[in-house]
Amino acid sequence: MLAPWSEPVRSLKTFRTSRAMTERPPALPNRRAIKTTRRRSALIVAILTIGVVGAGRAQYGIAASSQDVQAKLSYCKDCHGPSAQGYRGYVPIPRLAGQQPAYFENQLKAFIARRRTNNVMFNVANSLSPSMVAALAANFHSLNPPPIGGAPQRFVATGRNIFQNGMPDVNIAACAACHGPDATGSEQIPRLAGQLYPYVIKELTNWGKERGQNPARPDISAVMSPVAHSLNKEQIEAVAAYVSTLR
Amino acid sequence: MKDNGLKLAVVAIFWWAFLPPAAHADNVAVRNCNWCHGGSAEGYTPAPRLAGQRPQYLEQQLAYFHARTRDNPFSRQYMWGAAASLTPQSARQLALYYSSLQPKAANDGVPDLAPLGERIYQEGMPDANIVACVVCHGPNAEGVGQIPRVGGLAYSYLKRRLEQWTEGYHAAAGPPMPDIASKLSPDQIEALASYLSFVK
């Protein structure tokens, strides 16, 4: 959008060249008046810009206020736990503390695009601006409460074995190969350390039903499909129990 | 045939005689609770319905009354005394007994407010930072573990509990509830309480 102050000068030029010699040109506006007009117009434009951008800052990706971020964090923690350690509600609500920011952001986008199916999180994710998502991701990444625990101890040894060594004879790679030997993940690969036992079981068991296996909506989480499919119930419980103990 | 009948009678008599104390309605403790909570534990204002409540929740609340952690006015006035001489074992048996009774919905909310309440309960209001209650309390508000069944409780009881958490009374129900309740407006509290009072 052109600033208004450029118009009087341009139209004056056009007027003078097109009507040269046929009519007496009007008296030129004095230079001081032009300068004042330009300044005033510039000021008006600046105020309008700030007003529009300020009002729509959520949509335009300008940083959400720290007050808004704190309010939203408190809201997330109502379900995900006071230190985002997760919570065993009617459904297991996963730990967000220490989660990889890139993975965190990807999941929120996946909820919105219905590449990952969850009606509650669909609504939640749709209320978040990009800058809010980034702020939440950074905040949760910095939290480090102890894991909730509560998994049956007898599964942990088996789970450690599967996690660290995989099961080569059935072509299952070691989880540690991607998720890291301490299960903290990296970039788009999620942290599993301290994740809720019932949540990990639910995810591995329902992978094909919840996580974008729709070819029309490809999702990076499809990389986990063969693994999730190949693990049997006892192996899933074992791996879930093991990661739930990790700090 | 006659011997079998006698054997059966003997077994039945022994079974009846050695039943755990709180497992039937003639028990003294149960009668004392029913005095306020209603003959079939369906509630009698201000005492809430106990029938069909989650046993772990009941047991935990009795412990909180005993320890005087749950401190809103009616708790102070009635339940502190009622729970003062409860042992953990009797608390557990009372909890098991009441959880086994059939709950009936109170149906005493404001019908016009129920649709808004249902929306808040099932979907939440993310823009207002209000969570969807369904995530913890379940699709039929039946609860799980220590999370109570809130479906079918009396409108006045639900409304008062939600209001009390905004007034600073001690949580006792778990970390998130005071924070969650503080985000609800009075209209939203009435809507939720209305909707839930109708849930079977």
Would you give an account of this structure?
- The complex is a heterodimer of chains A (247) and B (200).
- The two termini of chain A are 54 Å apart.
- Mean pLDDT of chain A is 84; it is low at 1-16 and 53-60.
- In chain A, strands 1-2 form a two-stranded antiparallel sheet.
- Chain A has 247 residues and is an all-alpha fold.
- Chain A has helices at residues 6-18, 31-55, 57-60, 66-80, 101-112, 119-126, 130-141, 156-165, 175-179, 197-205, 207-210, 225-230, 233-245; strands at 87-88, 92-93.
- Chain A folds into two domains: 6-55, no CATH class; 66-245, Cytochrome Bc1 Complex, Chain D, domain 2.
- By secondary structure, chain B is an all-alpha fold.
- Chain B contains ten helices and no strands.
- In chain B, helix 3 (55-67) crosses helix 4, helix 3 (55-67) runs antiparallel to helix 5 and helix 6 (114-123) packs across helix 10.
- Chain B is globular and about 70 Å long.
- At the A-B interface, helix 4, strand 1 and helix 6 of A face helix 7 and helix 9 of B.
How do you describe this structure in short?
The complex is a heterodimer of chains A (247) and B (200). With 247 residues, chain A is an all-alpha fold.
CATH topology of the largest domain in chain B: Cytochrome Bc1 Complex, Chain D, domain 2
Q: Name the CATH superfamily classification of the largest domain in chain A.
A: Cytochrome c-like domain
Our measurement of the CA-to-CA distance between the termini of chain B, rounded to an integer number of angstroms, reads: 46 Å
Number of domains of chain A: 2
Structural class of chain B: mainly alpha
Tell me the overall shape of chain A.
elongated
CATH superfamily of the largest domain in chain B: Cytochrome c-like domain
Strand content of chain B: under 5%
Per CATH, the architecture of the largest domain in chain B is: Orthogonal Bundle
Helix content of chain B: 40-55%
| Mean pLDDT rating of chain B | 89
From the coordinates shown, what is the CATH architecture of the largest domain in chain A?
Answer: Orthogonal Bundle
* Multimeric organization: heterodimer
Low-confidence stretches of chain A: 1-16, 53-60
**Biggest sheet of chain B, in brief?**
none
